[in-house]
Amino acid sequence: MKILRSLLLAPIFALAFSTVAQAVVRTQVVQYKQGNTVLEGYLAYDDEIQGRRPGVMVVHEWTGINPYIQQRAQQLAKLGYVAFAADIYGKGIRPKNPQEAAAQAKIYRSNRQLMRDRALAGLQVLQKNSLTDVQRIAAIGYCFGGSTVLELARSGANVAGVVSFHGSLDTPNPSDAKNIKGKVLVLHGAEDPLVPPEQVLGFAEEMGTAGVDWQLIAYGGAVHSFTNPEAGNDKSQGTAYNQLADRRSWQDMRQFFAEIFGVR
Predict the structure, then answer these.
(1) pTM > 0.70
(2) Closest among 213, 186, 182 to 199, alpha carbons compared
(3) CA 91 → CA 9, 29, 33, 144, distances in Å?
(4) What are phi and psi of 163, to 5 degrees?
């Protein structure tokens, strides 16, 4: 009888557990503005955590906010952060192919002030969120987003640190590195043809000249987009997923957060 009762109750317990597990991470689309431009970001947080917690802004690849970036925000929420995926391009602008993505990214790479302004608008959304500990905020970005968070730091934004995953490191304003207030972590594919050694050396000189607390970790065998499974596995194309580098870079980010936030 006890066995039968257990079997009958098992589906109920499983359903209850599933419901609780799915209810932990809350997500919502957040509409906001930079100037007259309407932007549409994505917020994720764990509703079982009480009170304020560190905030992490996430900046998308050149394809804009998509399921991949939303997943990263959810991962951060599961780690106990309030995560906000900022929209650099604008509401409804979601490139459908590499040509459209390149055209959109070019707008901001050629206008770094606009890139910074869009990033700052997203940061302000995170800062104003009632769950965010405004003294403990970081920004991370992937590819195009990595470049963006570095520009955000160069603008003098009040962030404890920024993390670039396989982002470009060049800037037309290297002297602006003197404005950086937080720490910088660059997670780089050692064989990335889109971020060649001379660009890495230039970045190192920029950070050193400005006296920034910075780190660069290069992953052997990794090329551009090494964290995104949708990048495929053909390294000869210059972009490819690397599972080992993906896992290691995420752990390196977590260690960085432990240092700047004082949490694990």
Answers:
(1) yes
(2) 186
(3) 46, 11, 10, 18
(4) -130, 125
Two structure tokens written together for 68: 């991949």
CB-based contacts of 191, cutoff 8 Å, min separation 6: 220, 221, 222, 223, 235
- The four Cα atoms 226, 232, 235, 236 give a dihedral, to 10 degrees, of -140
Structure tokens belonging to residue 224: 């551009």
Q: How far apart are the first and last CA of the chain?
A: 46
The string of pLDDT tens digits covering residues 103-153 is: 999 999 999 999 999 999 999 999 999 999 999 999 999 999 999 999 999
Q: From its phi and psi, is residue 52 left (phi > 0), alpha (psi between -120 and 50) or beta?
A: beta
164 burial (CB, 10 Å; 0-12 / 13-18 / 19+) is: buried
Orientation angle between helical segments 144-154 and 112-128, nearest 10 degrees: 80
Write the pLDDT tens digit of every residue in 223-257: 999 999 999 999 999 999 999 999 999 999 999 99
d(C-alpha 157, C-alpha 89), whole Å: 20
Q: Give the Cα separation of 128 and 134 in Å (integer).
A: 8
- The 3-class secondary structure across 88-101, one letter per residue, is CCCCCCCCCCHHHH
